[in-house]
């Protein structure tokens, strides 16, 4: 029975988001309330269950993201991102800015979780975009893909 509930929930979630164009978070909340009702949780207890589930998930990630954001901000404000971007351009040249971002993302992605690495590398990407005058997607997509690849294939990552 729980697998049937999960399957139906996923279908309802997809319907709400694709056909009704409902916001993803709102759709998740609606489906979560529906699952709670189907599983027999009393209506009065649903807010507590939702808050516990969401709070636990956000609480685990928020510290990591917060600290990563602080490091990223310090890199941007101190000029470290500018210096790293300059070194990358010296090493690879402006034509190979994508390769520079992939190599950087892979090296940083080995040692950090995706969220932290992403937040730390973003100032470098913005600096490279500003210096080379290319589209942000030209630099950001290779960065994100390389980080995702490292995060997916390396064992110590969750």
Structure description:
The protein is an all-alpha fold. The chain folds into 2 domains: 2-41, no CATH class; 60-153, no CATH class. It is 82% helix and 0% strand. It is built from 7 helices and no strands. Helix 1 runs antiparallel to helix 2 (24-38), helix 5 (97-111) runs antiparallel to helix 6 and helix 6 (114-132) packs antiparallel against helix 7. The longest helix is centred in the middle third of the chain and has 33 residues, at 46-78. The radius of gyration is 21 Å and the shape is elongated. The model has no long low-confidence stretch (mean pLDDT 85).
Q: Roughly how many Å is the radius of gyration? A: 21 Å
Mean pLDDT: 85
Helix percentage range: over 70%
What does the main sheet amount to?
none
Number of beta-strand segments: 0
Based on secondary structure, the structural category is: mainly alpha
- How many helices in DSSP terms? 7
Please tell me the total number of domains. Answer: 2
Contiguous low-pLDDT stretches (5 residues minimum) are none
Order of helices and strands: HHHHHHH
- Proportion of residues in β-strands: under 5%
Q: Report the span from N to C terminus.
A: 29 Å
Shape: elongated
Concise synopsis of the structure shown:
The protein has helices at residues 2-18, 24-38, 46-78, 80-92, 97-111, 114-132, 136-153. By secondary structure, it is an all-alpha fold.
What order do the helices and strands come in, and which of them pair?
Elements: H1 2-18, H2 24-38, H3 46-78, H4 80-92, H5 97-111, H6 114-132, H7 136-153
Helix pairs in contact: 1-2, 3-6, 4-5, 4-6, 5-6, 5-7, 6-7
């Amino acid at each position: 029975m729980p697998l049937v509930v999960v399957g139906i929930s996923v279908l309802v979630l997809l319907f709400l988001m694709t056909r009704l164009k409902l916001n993803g978070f709102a759709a998740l909340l609606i489906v979560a309330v529906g699952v709670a009702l189907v599983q027999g949780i009393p209506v009065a207890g649903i807010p507590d269950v939702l808050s516990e589930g969401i709070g636990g998930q956000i609480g685990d990630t928020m510290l990591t993201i917060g600290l990563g954001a602080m490091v990223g901000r310090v890199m941007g404000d101190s000029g470290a991102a500018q210096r790293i971007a300059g070194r990358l351009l010296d090493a690879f040249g402006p034509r190979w800015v994508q390769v520079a971002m992939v190599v950087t993302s892979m090296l940083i992605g080995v040692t950090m979780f995706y969220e932290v690495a992403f937040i730390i590398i973003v100032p470098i990407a913005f600096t490279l975009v500003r210096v080379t005058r290319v589209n942000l997607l030209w630099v950001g997509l290779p960065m994100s893909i390389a980080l995702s690849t490292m995060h997916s294939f390396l064992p110590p990552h969750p």
